[in-house]
Amino acid sequence: MDHKILQTVRELIDEVGYPDLTVDQVAARAGVGKAAIYRRYASKAEMAFVATMHGQEPPPVADTGSLYGDLLALVRTFHVRMAAPAARHLAPALMSELAVNPELDARFQDTFLATEQADFAEIIERAVARGELAGSVDPAIAHLLLLGSLAAALYIINLPVDDATVTDLAAAAAAGITALADRRHSDPGRTAEPH
């Protein structure tokens, strides 16, 4: 049933666009009740987000043997999802809904963002174990450096993002994560920049 709902959402977004998408349309075409949809998704925005950006099971985090390589593999995977036309139309609507719906925001933080940050934690742990990083770095900061930059480029600044840009983002994030680890390792009591 989940697959049918998400496939229907993708089809309808392609046909009518996100603004004109309704839960009623999805339920009718997928042959399910609206209650079944609302048991799975708190809102139209969450349902569409899952269908367009997190609908497929993500591949395991690549272990390329380097921090930069792991980050590049991850950002390339996310770029494909985030740059898709449906995702580019949906992201602003989802951001607006998250800003006014604390329950949806909490659910988004606890599911999608928590999963993404767990991927960053795994990448960082491997880099520390390989000796590439002097110590651990907050996965939320690493997430912000890489995927936050990608999201800003795609959804706020509206930059054309190609593989060269993605490669540069991975290099910048790797350098930033390394610098943060070095700073924290050399001064473990330091938690924030002085104001």
The run of helices and strands is HHHHHHHHH
Gap between N and C termini, in Å? 53 Å
As a percent range, the share of strand residues is under 5%
CATH class of the largest domain: Mainly Alpha
DSSP helix fraction: over 70%
Average residue pLDDT:
88
Q: Which structural class is indicated by helix and strand composition?
A: mainly alpha
Number of individual domains = 2
Q: What is the level-2 CATH architecture name of the largest domain?
A: Orthogonal Bundle
Q: What's the shape? A: elongated
The CATH homologous superfamily of the largest domain is named Tetracycline Repressor, domain 2
Unreliable spans are: none
Task: Find the count of extended strands (DSSP E, 2+ residues).
Answer: 0
| Main sheet: strands, sense, barrel | none
How many helices does DSSP assign?
A: 9
Global Rg: 19 Å
CATH overall fold name of the largest domain: Tetracycline Repressor, domain 2
Give the key terms.
elongated, mainly alpha, 2 domains, 195 residues, Arc Repressor Mutant, subunit A, Tetracycline Repressor, domain 2
Q: Would you kindly provide a written description of the structure presented here, covering whatever features stand out?
A:
The protein is mainly alpha-helical and 195 residues long. The chain folds into two domains: 40 residues, Arc Repressor Mutant, subunit A; 131 residues, Tetracycline Repressor, domain 2. The protein has nine helices and no strands. The chain is elongated.
